[in-house]
Amino acid sequence: MQHSHIAAASQSSRGGDSAESSDIKRGKKRGSYNCGRCGLPKKGHNCNVKTPVSATTTPADSSLSVVSVPSSALSAPRQPPSNLRRALSFDGLDDRASRLDPLDDRADGDSFAESDPEPDLDLDLDTDSCGLPASLRWEVMRRLPPAGLLSAAKVCKGWRETARKLWRATEELKLRVPANVHVGFVASMLQKCPGIVRLSLRMESDFDSTMLACIAFSCPNLESMEISMFDTATNRINGDELGRFVADKRNLKSLKMEGCSNLGGFVLCSSSLSTLWLSDLHSLSKMVFNCPQLREISLEFSCQENDGTDLPTVIEALGRNCLRLQNIHIASMRLSHAAVLALTAAQLRGVRMLSLVLGSEITDASVAAIASSYPNLELLDLSGSGISDSGIGMICNVFPETLTRLLLALCPNVTSSGIQFATAQLPLLELMDCGMTICDPNFPDPTADEDDCKSQKPSSANQQHINQKLIIKHSHLKKLSLWGCTGLDALYLNCPKLNDLNLNSCRNLHSERLLLQCPTLENVHASGCHDMLIDAIQSQVSNAFPAIDNHSPSKRLPDGSKRVRVPYLLSGESPEPEKKRRKIERLPCNVLVD
Q1: b or e along 582-591 (b: 16 or more beta carbons within 10 Å of the residue's beta carbon)?
Q2: What is the distance, to the nearest Å, from the Cα of residue 433 to the centroid of all Cα atoms in its chain?
Q3: Acidic residues bias: where (predicted)?
Q4: How many CB atoms lie within 10 A of CB 494?
Q5: Domain that holds residue 145
Q6: How far is CA 564 from the centre of its chain?
């Protein structure tokens, strides 16, 4: 014991020198000679302190691992930068991260969250130990990913204070919750950002009432919430819990939630809610909407045959209390003509986008009801319905001056004649999806499994879909999808603004019957096509992008500082030889295979 006290005393007597030497070593970043768990010297030391659960190693794509570790584990190597550069996003370990500019504010469009660029503090007067102004430090640190921000907070007191204010100024948080993470870690992250107004959770673990209560308590000013579920996770929220949450959040404007199979029924009352997305709904006993500000709704039901939801009653209640609806999307195998009549009886004159998907009982009579009730539609999606070319004729007669997007995928009664008529009569059309409409019954379904393909037999019901020709000439069309049209054997396109063409699984399309006159094409999807067709596509799109000759000579300014273009009529010189002319190359079109 005496020896230990003497050693300690002698060590403390040299405290100043050892502190200076340790600072020098720390500045050279040669690593720590002490244990990261207990702080004792590493030499001859076997640490018995267990690593906390929150510091366990997680896979590289686990975004929460960069924020759920304690302070002793923050000396780990820095994670790759997030593709959402200016966001406090914990889903940043994306494959595209290495290809983005670290300071590019435009990365990923509007999906990043932005802290307040002018916080309520005097940034110009404060400087750190290196003389860096606080305003510049703020601008640099607000572009860091979460791992970098946590590491920067360890540098000094000034950096730690700036990081704390950045967390508090955050308005959007995107969080991925792994299966082994407790709700307490989510609560701690939400408490770091009390000013959150937009929250997005990607759940690998179950989402239950405890997590919902945590969000309700920690985010008093929440305006937007999105919950997405992985296949291994289950959404255990019932209708009563969801109704209480919506009623308590008086500022909530947008709610998007997946995996809503356990709702059973709900009553939603909100004076602020304007966007509602619910998916995986099943056998709802009641659906009551008292949301006068609701403008967009998406209801996707599960594809189970035992779904007992009464859709006409649900749609009638929706139209009775949500008179400001503009965008409606309903996907259900139980959609029928009766449901369409219930929707049209609501007299929702403000509807601009209508999507009724997977309703095989929707017929041309349903199209007539839609056309008479919604004369100003800009988007119409009747994919999976039973409409025919007659229904397309009614669409063209009513919406020639408004419709810009028409989606008719998986409509077996539509032929190439109806598609050609639609493109000829709808001059404002920019997007058209006709996937799996012109199908040869002798070819297997591209969307079916191998076992299903083997069991399929040719049918004589759709023999008129064999060997069809499609000719489209349109001046505004930008995207055209013909995926899975196995009955199409000839295609002629003259679309000067077309930039995206989907020909996936067009197995019967002949290369010598393909003509693409689309000079602005950027992407052609040709997965599942035979090699001769792919070669023909590549040949035609490469010939559509020739190099443009630059006929203007290049001259320097009188001081010799800059080269400028001068027309020949001003230069007084003869044109340059053909071989000396520069060529301006255009970006080639991408032919995507597999």
Answers
A1: eeeeeeebeb
A2: 20
A3: 111-123
A4: 15
A5: 130-169
A6: 43
Beta bridge partners, 452, equal none
For 9-40, the pLDDT digits (tens) are: 444 444 444 444 444 444 444 556 677 666 67
DSSP 8-state secondary structure symbol assigned to residue 207: B
H or E stretch including 20? helix 15-28
Give the pTM.
0.70
d(C-alpha 570, C-alpha 249), whole Å: 70
The CATH number of the domain holding residue 154 is 1.20.1280
Q: What's phi and psi for 455, nearest 5 deg?
A: -85, -10
Which tokens hold the place of 472? 């489209």
pLDDT tens-digit series, residues 253-294: 999 999 999 998 899 999 999 999 999 998 888 888 999 999
Residue 513 lies in a domain: yes
Place of tokens 């060590």: 11
d(CA 493, CA 470): 8
Paired tokens of 260? 């809503």
CB-based contacts of 452-461 (< 8 A; 24+ apart in sequence): none
What is the distance between the alpha carbons of residues 303 and 307, in angstroms, rounded to a whole number?
A: 8
Neighbours of 76 (CB within 10 A): 14
* 3-state SS, residue 308: coil
- In angstroms, rounded to a whole number, what is the distance separating the alpha carbons of residues 427 and 403? 9
User: How much is the mean pLDDT over the chain?
Assistant: 76
Q: What are the pLDDT digits (tens) for 360-395? A: 999 999 999 999 999 899 999 999 999 999 999 999
At residue 227, φ and ψ (nearest 5 deg) are -120, 115
Backbone phi, then psi, for 184, in 5-degree steps? -65, -35
Residue 150 counted as domain residue:
yes
In a domain, 390, yes or no: no
Tell me how far apart the terminal alpha carbons of the chain are, to the nearest angstrom.
Answer: 73
Q: What is the 3-state secondary structure (H, E, C) of 187-201?
A: HHHHHHCCCCCEEEE
Q: Are 175 and 207 in contact (CB under 8 A)?
A: no
Neighbours of 305 (CB within 10 A): 7
Question: How many domains, in total, are found in the chain?
Answer: 2
| Residue given tokens 């598609």 in the structure block | 419
Cα–Cα–Cα angle for 127, 132, 138, rounded to 5 degrees: 85
Q: pLDDT for 547-560, tens place per residue? A: 444 445 555 556 55
Q: Is residue 160 part of a domain?
A: yes
Closest CA to 289 of 259, 313, 266: 266
Contact residues for 43 (Cβ-Cβ < 8 A; gap 6+): 33
The contacts of residue 419 (CB under 8 Å, 6+ apart) are 392, 408, 432, 434, 437, 438, 470, 472
Rounded to an integer, what distance in angstroms lies between the CA atom of residue 164 and that of residue 83? 22
